[in-house]
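Researcher: Here's a chain I'd like modeled. Treat it as a single chain, no partners, no ligands.
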Amino acid sequence: MFFMGTYTPKLDDKGRLFLPAKFRDDMQEGLVITRGQERALDIRTRADFEVFTEKFKNASQTDARLRAYGRMLFALASEQVPDKQGRVTITPELRAYAGLDRDAVVIGVYDRIEVWEPGSWTRYTADQEQAFANLQDEVFPG
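Model: Modeled as a single isolated chain. Structure tokens:
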């Protein structure tokens, strides 16, 4: 299972996001929405989130950076089960974190889905384009 592609769904008046149809089957058993990096939201299947957090659980809790990361990760985490229309509710706190109002950009990033505010996504991709081109030669030489 992996996610890929870019979609532009809208949030409804209740803050619900329509998951892209291609992602719904993998998410129907449940998912977790939480803060991601660069003010995006991460959505993982419930099973993948459990695997992801197992790494956290087994790491040293004496590391202040790890404790801080855990607080940020779990404090706003929201468990969801998509409704029959494939909608999930983005909590007001998570919408505020990501700067989401009505429009959203949803991207598949291998093992997770990210939800971006459209302007943030546009700026991010513009900033990263040259680094992406340069990194390919470094990561995959030849």
